[in-house]
Amino acid sequence: MADSIGARIRYWRLRRHGMTQSVLAGLAGVSQSYISQVEAGHKGIDRRSTLVGIAAALQVTVADLLDQPGDPTDPAKAGAADAVPAIWTALIEIEEGERRTPTRPADQLAAAIDRSAAMRLRADYATMAPLLPGLLFDAAAYGGRSLAQVGYQASTCLRHLGYRHLALTAAKVALAAAEDAGDPAWIGASRFACTQSMPIEAADITARVAARALADLQAAAVAPDARQTLGQLHLAAAFTCAVGGRFDDSQAHLAEASREADSLGDPEDGAGFNAGCFGPTNVMLWRMSIAAESGEYGRVIELARTVRPEPLAMANRHQSYWMDLGRALAHSRRDREAEVAFTRAELAAPVPFSLNPLARDAVVTMVHRSRRNAVSPSLRTLARRFRIEHL
User: What's this model's pTM, rounded to 2 decimal places?
Assistant: First the structure.
């Protein structure tokens, strides 16, 4: 069986002077039977707030339990991790204020940034990552919006590869460049990247960062680009409030995001400003994610019947829809339907799916349940994606 969240919980529990399951359960605010089932792989952890509680009780980070960033030689990363040290070096150099002579004129850089953006749209991080060090150096030489855009792209790529701490550094580089340019839309987008990159256990401060960004952007959000970014920040705040257990605040931010989305509509090209995909469809997908985080799995399934991700061009948004639906179906023990949903998620964005620890744990749980019967071909395929030894 592949290393799972449950196996790592057991490892860290035993490292804490043989802490019992009962003690861990009491500290984390869950039942002993729940810890037992999670450690045995019979139940997965779907809610980030539960992960935060268990990690705090074990005095480790959530990243320790998720095994992120994980093995850099993992075939799922398809060589993308090899570029991470060079990306990190470029970010350090830029943060230190050093600037190199650009290797290409501005028009060629703009074309290269557009090609990288197209890779981000497809979630093709394996191809995108090796290009980022050179793009960062050249964009830093020109500064302004160019650096804001490349910094944002680097943040997205690093986060999906599991390097959340470096993703936050890249987001801050983007933010500094956007502030130098005085561009409200890119300032908002960069702050959105910051909220997406912060550690899960920092949900409260992440919500405050999002709230401050909203307050700063509100007055400047007149143009459609800035309004789309404003809506995205409301969605980020809604999710982080849900992780922190502030469900009333979460719903208030969702209401504001819905108001903006209803006014703007879905982007005509399916992407919108910075491929944020902001509009009514994307708001519904975030509603699904927030319902899953709140443990409302029936609500996730209900919402999935009313929306489809097809209007959106971003592969990760398609994956989000099928991932949340798959997790809700798996939690409801509708495993055959969950297999179909997870397969669709994997087809939408293979690398982010195969590196997603919550998806892996859901598949581990389904494999455990299927042992009493024949393992279906589709579940067998999903298990191979995560290198799960299921027989």
Answer: 0.90
How many whole angstroms separate alpha carbon 232 and alpha carbon 53?
A: 27
5-66 has which fold? Answer: 434 Repressor (Amino-terminal Domain) (1.10.260)
Which residues of the chain are in CATH 1.10.260.40 domains?
Answer: 5-66
Collapsing DSSP to helix, strand or coil, 79 comes out as coil
Q: How far apart are CA 322 and CA 314, in angstroms?
A: 13
Q: Tens of pLDDT along the chain (391 residues)?
A: 347 888 899 999 999 888 999 999 999 999 999 999 999 888 888 788 899 999 999 999 988 888 888 777 777 777 788 999 999 999 999 999 999 999 999 999 999 999 999 999 999 999 999 999 999 999 999 999 999 999 999 999 999 999 999 999 999 999 999 999 999 999 999 999 999 999 888 888 888 888 888 888 887 767 899 999 999 999 999 999 998 889 999 999 999 999 999 999 999 999 999 999 999 999 999 999 999 988 899 999 999 999 999 999 999 999 999 999 999 999 898 999 999 999 999 999 988 888 888 888 888 888 888 765 567 888 888 877 777 764 4
Burial profile 87-98: b = 16 or more Cβ within 10 angstroms, e = fewer? bbebbebbeeee
The structure tokens 């992960």 sit at 51
- SS3 for 124? coil
